[in-house]
Design a protein that fits this description.
Number of strands: 0
Oligomer: single chain
Number of domains: 1
Radius of gyration: 17 Å
Distance between the termini: 14 Å
Largest sheet: none
Shape: elongated
Number of helices: 3
Order of helices and strands: HHH
Length: about 70
Amino acid sequence: MPKTPRPGATFWRLLLLLPIVAVVWVPFYDHVGPTLWGWPFFYWYQMLWVLLTAIITGVVFLMEDAGYADDAR
């Protein structure tokens, strides 16, 4: 039987747009400063979003999975 998302699931899916917007909006991070341990802002900002994207994806997965588990009871 296919799973149907619960009504609040759309909010969690919208969180997945954050990394896309943050990385695609180039004028926001198209400069050198501030540096972090000698790394220009452009580089450490991109690497920070790699980590944040993994965390956000995990949160969305867990919240979606929890919603499906509640429906099964």
